[in-house]
Amino acid sequence: MDSGGNHRRDIGKAGEELACGVLRDMGHIILERNWRSSHQEIDIISADADGIHFVEVKARQRNIQAPPQMSVDHAKQRNIVKAARQFLRTTKGLPYSSLECHFDIVAITFSGGEPAIEWFPQAYIPIYL
């Protein structure tokens, strides 16, 4: 029996797979997936010629009330920035610490047929958090 939590998790995993594919197609190298620091998590950490990207993936089965990207609120942004700072202090993140940091969102809506995928580069700027 599949509970709602498992269904959401499956949609989230499928969304992250699609997001990684889109990022790779744009020339990104995927450094980490589901990177955790304490209670914070970053869905995807990637790098390209422009710098390092901390990517939040929001996947929904359909747009009922608002587009998926709208759920990345101020508190979520603040948590991602905290986790990004932690990542940049790690052995794996240190080589990227002098690069430009980008905070992106990939929104995916599964609604029959092909999923709708939108990439929002520089979706927010941490200086305001």
Give an overview in words.
The structure is a single chain. The chain has one domain (4-128): 3-Layer(aba) Sandwich (Trna Endonuclease, Chain: A, domain 1). The chain has helices spanning 4-25, 74-88; strands spanning 29-37, 40-48, 51-60, 101-109, 116-120. It is α+β, with helices and mostly antiparallel strands and 129 residues long. Helices cover 29% and strands 33% of the residues. The chain has 2 helices and 5 strands; from the N terminus they run αβββαββ. The longest helix has 22 residues, at 4-25. The chain is globular. The mean pLDDT is 90. Strands 1-2-3-4-5 form a 5-stranded mixed sheet.
Give the H and E element order.
HEEEHEE
Number of domains: 1
- Enumerate the spans where pLDDT stays under 50 for 5 or more consecutive residues: none
> In percent, how much strand structure appears in the residues?
25-35%
The best one-word shape is: globular
Mean pLDDT: 90
CATH topology: Trna Endonuclease, Chain: A, domain 1
Q: Which CATH-level-2 architecture?
A: 3-Layer(aba) Sandwich
Give the % helix: 25-40%
Radius of gyration: 15 Å
**Main β-sheet, spatial strand arrangement:** 1-2-3-4-5
Number of strands: 5
